[in-house]
Design a protein that fits this description.
One of its GO terms (cellular component) is plasma membrane. The chain is mainly alpha-helical. 66% of the residues lie in helices and 0% in strands. The protein has one domain. α3 runs parallel beside α7.
């Protein structure tokens, strides 16, 4: 139950950040061109969207951090496995588990260093340039995203250890659509 909630929350955060950043960028670009229209100038000149670029940058950074954890969970990260596929089963399993544990260790270290940085930043008055929100909120994605990614590495490692199955992404799969393979050619005389 907890994992399903975490999975959905992760997906909602990623989709919401991506959608909102795209919408804000679209509105900003349209505003930039419409303000040059003489009839609309008196109305649109007073709308200040200078903060939008900074907000979109922060939203994409947060989206990328949570998207990396999503990538580990679903197996969509790029990996070079030409040599790993040539190993025998015992060695392959050991190398894959080592890689997954290495990823978990690395993201745990980044998360811990990020948490320390954010904690120290909380005791300062630093704010972002345009939005003027506390800087620790902006940098909060580092420990949150890194710890989530560490959890996902451990989750994949645990599953692989017991089932020998890694998550893999099928680019041809679309949720809700069932693919029916074409019928095999019928030989002469069969019907």
């Amino acid at each position: 139950m907890f994992l399903r909630i975490l999975d959905r929350l992760e997906e909602i955060i990623i989709a919401s950040l991506m959608g909102a950043a795209t919408l804000i960028t679209f509105v900003t670009v349209v505003h930039r061109f419409l303000v040059d229209v003489p009839v609309l100038y008196p109305y649109l000149f007073w709308i200040n969207l200078a903060w939008s670029q900074e907000l979109c940058i922060y939203m994409f950074i947060w989206m990328a951090k949570f998207g990396a954890a999503y990538g580990v969970r679903t197996g969509i990260h790029v990996g070079v496995d030409v040599l790993i596929k040539r190993l025998n089963d015992r060695w392959r399993k050991g190398v894959i588990l080592f890689g997954l544990m290495g990823g978990a260790l690395f993201t745990a270290i980044v998360g811990t260093m990020g948490a320390k940085f954010v904690y120290e930043l909380m005791h300062t008055d630093q704010v972002s340039p345009d939005l003027e929100i506390p800087s620790w909120i902006v940098y909060g994605c580092i420990p949150l995203g890194s710890y989530l990614m560490c959890f996902r590495f451990l989750q994949v490692c645990w599953t692989y250890f017991w089932t020998d199955e890694l998550p893999h992404h099928d680019a041809t799969n679309v949720d809700g659509i069932e693919v029916v393979s074409p019928k095999a050619p019928v030989a002469m005389g069969e019907a």
